[in-house]
Specification:
By secondary structure, the protein is of the alpha+beta class. The protein folds into 2 domains: 45 residues, no CATH class; 62 residues, CPE0013-like fold (Roll), CATH 3.10.530.10. Helices cover 18% and strands 38% of the residues. Strands 8-5-6-10-9 form a 5-stranded mixed sheet. Bound molecules: iron/sulfur cluster (SF4).
Length: 117
């Protein structure tokens, strides 16, 4: 099989073509650097994404605080991760970088606040 991707590892956005079967990658072309090849291989073998959302805050200046994953998580876990995030309410004060959900879904990735509240 053949798949065209736009590399998102840097703003240059190279067009990459991957030839593969299942999770076996035969060739990666169009990338300008090694990071592009790694991105393309990950997209085929185990695609991951960062998530940004908000969490409800009790007693804060704002009703919610923005949060994000501390590292990408498997794409297949996005909906379950959003469910975990939506189920949480934190008490103010919330500090930038504060861990809101440690080791979300056993991924080793934390959900952290990206602002104070
Ligand atoms: S292949 Fe390299 S240069 Fe091209 S977008 Fe990806 S990281 Fe940037």
């Amino acid at each position: 099989m053949k798949r065209d991707l736009i590399c998102v590892a840097c703003p240059r956005g190279c067009m990459i073509t991957v030839e593969y079967e299942g999770t076996e990658v035969y060739s990666v072309t169009g990338n300008t650097c090694k990071r592009g090849e790694e991105y393309a291989r990950t997209e085929i073998v185990n695609p991951t994404r960062n998530i940004a959302s908000t969490v409800k805050v009790n007693g804060g200046v704002h009703p919610v605080v923005p949060v994000k994953t501390s590292a990408p998580i498997p794409k297949t876990m996005i909906f379950d991760c959003m469910r975990e995030i939506n189920a949480v309410t934190v008490d103010a004060p919330v500090k930038l970088g504060q861990v809101i959900i440690p080791d979300v879904l056993g991924t080793g990735v934390n959900i952290v606040a990206t602002n104070n509240d």
